[in-house]
Amino acid sequence: MSLQFGPDYVRAIAPYQSGKPISEVAREFGLDVARIVKLASNENPLGMPESARLAMLDAMADGARYPDANGFDLKAAISAKYAVPQEWITLGNGSNDILELAAHALLAPGQAAMYAQYSFVVYALATQAVGATAIVVPAQDFGHDLAAMSAAMTANTRLVFIANPNNPTGTFLSAAALEAFLASVPPEVVVVLDEAYNEYLAPEHQYDSIAWVRKYPNLLVSRTLSKAYGLAGLRVGFGIAQPVLTDILNRIRQPFNVNSLAQAAAVAALNDSAYLAETARLNRVGYEQFTQAFDALGLHYVPSFGNFVLVKVGEDEAAGARVNLALLKRGVIVRPVGNYGLPQWLRVSIGLPAENAVFLDALTQVLA
Ligand SMILES: *Cc1c(COP(=O)(O)O)cnc(C)c1O
Fold first, then answer.
1. Nearest CA to ligand 1 atom 14
2. What is the pTM of this model?
């Protein structure tokens, strides 16, 4: 028998495919780094907030010390912003960490996690890593079918992941639909409501998920500083839940999971409302730019509530991979989503207007 390590369920995990780094594309295709446009990972095209950069520089003075394991200042900032006690907050090394903590704390082999078809791949990875079973509920119009999810609940189900807005499709569930679902979920089943793109919602779509946390002890709301707050490289996210659930997550959290520079930058970013407003404005402008061009090219896209758009670039099963490669050769990095079961589609992050224009020009050439 050939040498192998780890349990079957770990060996069965397909590695996470991230957006290609700019430096890698430059090397592979012989391109100038400065000319490459990366619209692959839903990052904030404004670059990190200046307020966060300065706070980070300040925090460097203490680099020889361990970070505050309890993240007092950051929890204080979150606590003030969302009007929840600090005991309701779990800090994560990105919100990815929060999703994994939930899976590790709440699932075991023989139990099940539920999520929708075309939802964030980390839900599958975190579920597989603990040897739990996945209940994947078919999507409806590229989004969550909450009625089908309710119906698919089994006695072994312990965790439900819902992203709103959803990645990679950009779909949105209304507050009314979500709240009806929460009310229907058995109390021993934890719902992780992943709101990585919440800050991009237009005012008329905003809803108060923290009010639901006060009402439902089995709800964990997950947020990130990686998208609208512009700190993807620093890895900061957080969860908000009642203490009975927060306590369980913190028992398996690494004490120093969020480093001191990231904590300092996150406090500054959370309070930088000007940066957030500019982010939202640019995103609206970029969304118009994308969708007008897609309409002109006759391309189907899924209306998006996030900072990215899922667009169909061909009818055959190789279309996404083919167009992706042609774009890479022109120095444009987007995200193929064949691993999500969407081989005809590409997910494109909304960038600065000039970056969007480079992508749209390249796409027009490639499709011609
Ligand atoms: C980007 C994203 C996250 C956030 O990842 P981080 O680990 O916080 O960088 C979480 N959930 C979804 C659905 C995402 O798209």
1. 196
2. 0.96
Q: How far apart are the first and last CA of the chain?
A: 52
With cut-offs at 50, 70 and 90, classify the pLDDT of residue 1. low
Task: State the CATH architecture for 50-272.
Answer: 3-Layer(aba) Sandwich (3.40)
- The DSSP letter of residue 60 is G
Q: Is 49 in the pocket of ligand 1 (CB under 6 A)?
A: no
From CA 314, how far away is CA 337, in angstroms rounded?
A: 13
pLDDT digits (tens, 9 = 90+) for 162-191: 999 999 999 999 999 999 999 999 999 999
What would the two tokens of residue 290 be? 């994308």
Map out the domains of the chain as residue ranges: 8-47+274-367, 50-272
Protein residue with least CA distance to atom 10, ligand 1: 196
Q: Which atom of ligand 1 approaches the CA of 224 most closely?
A: 8
Fold of 8-47+274-367: Aspartate Aminotransferase, domain 1 (3.90.1150)
User: Inter-axis angle of helices 95-106 and 243-252, to 10 degrees?
Assistant: 100
